[in-house]
Protein: Alpha-amylase
Organism: Simiduia agarivorans
Amino acid sequence: MKTSIPLIGALAFAASSFSSVASAGTAFVHLFEWKWDDIATECESFLGPKGFDAVQVSPPHEHTAGPYWWTRYQPVSYNNLTSRSGNETQFKNMVNRCNAAGVKIYVDVVMNNWASYQGHGNVASGGSSWTPRNYPELSGQDFHSDCTISNYGDANNVWDCGLYGMPDLNTGASYPQDYVANYMKRLTSWGVAGFRIDAAKHIRPSELDTVMAKAQRPWAFLEVIGAAGEAVQPGQYTYIGPVTEFKYGTDLAANFNGQIKNLKTLGPSWGLQASDKAVVFVDNHDRERGHGGGGNLTYKEGTKYNLANVFMLAYPYGYPKVMSGYKFTDTDAGPPAGATNCSNSEWVCQHRWGNIANMVEFRNFTVGAWSVNNWWDNGANQIAFSRGDKGFVVINNESYALSQTLYTGLPAGNYCNVLAGADKCSGDVISVAANGYATFNVPANAAAAIHGGALAGGGCVTDCPPVSNVPSLNVRGTFNGWGNLPMTLVADNTWQATFTLNGQANQRFKVDVYGDWSLNYGDNGADGVLDQTGADIYTTASGEFRLTVNDQTMRYTLEQVGQCNACFAGNFSQMYFRGTANNWSATPMALVANNVWELVVNFDGQSNQRFKFDVNADWSHNYGDNGANGSLERTGADIFTNLVGQYRVRMNDQAMTYSIQPL
Ligand code: AAO
């Protein structure tokens, strides 16, 4: 079932003409009735980062006046590009900004039918005056004779009469052909990457082919609605380019309202076009309003609609188009006033729904595995399948939760469930075991998806750096004057620090995440489990100790490192540090090796900062450093230092030397 993908034409085109903007995308969005300025911003802030390949924009040509959305489908001029979405300058600016963001622009070209609606006068959106069959650049002779399509069983009637009675361009004549082709070439020269040919079904295939040839064959998909029993069918057009596969949305709706286990074989065997000839969608701007037939799901169906989009983006068939429009009850209503973007809740913004946007990246990542593998279903409305060894999706279209251990075909690792939040890794992590199985717990009417482009823990599968629940952790206590001793992440969720305790009265400590007490932990009840802003942790210990904290279980341990005080030999039985750092009080030092006394000191760099060593804490037997040469003399000079921060001060009572080392 491996087959080429439909956007190959688009990519080839982009590569030859706009290699700098060619993207590896596999799905596009229709930002229906969005303004050019807002589309540009959306490309930069959302569509590009989420991997959307392109945006289909509303027709940019000048159109008949009126508040209805469909006035955009009644052209007046291709030379005047002022429409409800903005003017020509804004349009070009949008193309440039979207291209720079890696998002192509597809323009909806309305050539078959021209303006007839005069309910809001005969001055068009850009100020041009017109009457039916009389426009700034076209006149009566450029149109077929006046008649209205009345018989879809007669191909000539469908091709040569007017859709809804609108003037029908004579695409068999050279002047109209050149007029349309020049418009498309102009747009292409501005960086437009492709086209939707509106009402292509109403243009004779040979004539449309000539127009496309004159336009130098840009990538385009053709709107040809297939309906049983009609004289004109999509298959007559696929030699020109991919067509809109309307039956796909009908099939999705029927089975999401029936049993989605049937979708296992969805494709040409269902009477659909070949995958590389099909642009597919759950709904489009016509169908969501009942224009162009119903029988499909829309945003009004909520979860089913959402799941149908997940399926479309996961399933290897066609080039998917995500519909994104605004809320409506009146099917003629034009776009809401105010901002045309997702900050205005009048817009539905389907493309921003986490399940839809994150599935675009799923499709991009799995494009190389163009097959359905490891299919599973519950015999009704729960399905799962993989795309080779690249991604796996589970869709639960039942009203009860799914809990299954399934064979995914994916390499072992921890994967983000990209459908558990707006950000692909903001939800739960699904672990695929070495044997390829993973357990999925999916709520009713929801889905889960994992792929190799969204791995938990920063994309690491093997030999991963440790993960933690907090970005940092510090120990603070009497031993370091309540300064911050940074702890080290030594294993998943496991932080450690080693420091010297001296057994002083009221010796205690806490741990502090950011080093500013804003998120600190002590231990209420001294039960070995940390509590946020809990009580100070007291200890009478003396010597070098290692504190281990697990930021998941919040358990901690304090263990002595190496040996105990009594295990080392010293020339003195005690030693005290005294200086400006402790207001000349006597802080006991710990014997951490034979003859080596140690204390962690928090130096503040104050002027005249200095210290001495005092054997009995009464100055009767003290040591300083004459000549500041590192060797100690009895009642020698104060030892000056301008250091700031935490240092390990050591003194050797045999060699009578000392050192100050940063921690
Ligand atoms: C407006 C007013 C009209 C007025 C007219 C002239 O609404 O009252 O008479 O202006 O002033 C859009 C709107 C139209 C609007 C038009 C112009 O939808 O309401 O008319 O702008 O402003 C046919 C075409 C297809 C077309 C579709 C709407 O083949 O090309 O109708 N779609 C495109 C655009 C659309 C736009 C135009 C074309 C015109 O996407 O937005 O119109 O530029 C059958 C046929 C189809 C036929 C449909 C609907 O399909 O097979 O070819 O589409 O019917 O007439 C089942 C059904 C099957 C049905 C199918 C559709 O399978 O069995 O019968 O569903 O999915």
User: Anything to note?
Assistant: The chain is about 15% helix and 25% strand.
